[in-house]
Amino acid sequence: MTTPVLLTPADFPSWTTPLGELLLDVVAGGGSLGFLDGLTRDEAIAWWRDLIPAATRGDIAVWAVRDTDGRCLGTVTLGFSAMPNGRHRAEVRKLMVHSAARGRGLGRVLLTTAERAAADRGITLLVLDTETDSPAEGFYRAAGWQRVGTIPDYATDPAGVLRPTTLYYKHPERRTGTAA
């Protein structure tokens, strides 16, 4: 399995198409990522393209994995707080694994990459939300994330049905004696 690559602002534009195609695959499979059925390829690519300024400013960090054919197999994003009282925390966003790459541990590799990068940056608190009762909940619990609570009718799934979301947090472990 390939190691996730941190996308630099210079790299990001060349990744928007593969990332958009990954987003389409995950939404088509029912992934609750904030998008609805009918998402087009152009819309998915444009969504990623619109993140380039945030990546350039350092507001987000995005890691991705491609296969040998250039297809994006997975990604994860960390969103950093812009407020002075929140610089110790970050949000894990848009952890996605392509349907053809599931079940091989790529999601765990991506999550671990984000957690380690956060700790190396001095982040002491990570947060995320995910659709309640989705397979992602078991994945995050197995990775040591702590459930905070559930908000009813928080967002719709791709089919437009209101679903609850569950909030999670984790204190990333600082590594000692390792290269960053």
TrEMBL record:
Protein name as catalogued: GNAT family N-acetyltransferase
Keyword Transferase carried by entry: yes
Keyword field: Acyltransferase, Transferase
Ranges for domain N-acetyltransferase: 2-174
GO molecular function: acyltransferase activity, transferring groups other than amino-acyl groups
CDD domains named in the record: NAT_SF (cd04301)
InterPro entries to which the protein is assigned, alphabetical: Acyl_CoA_acyltransferase, Bact_Acetyltransf, GNAT_dom
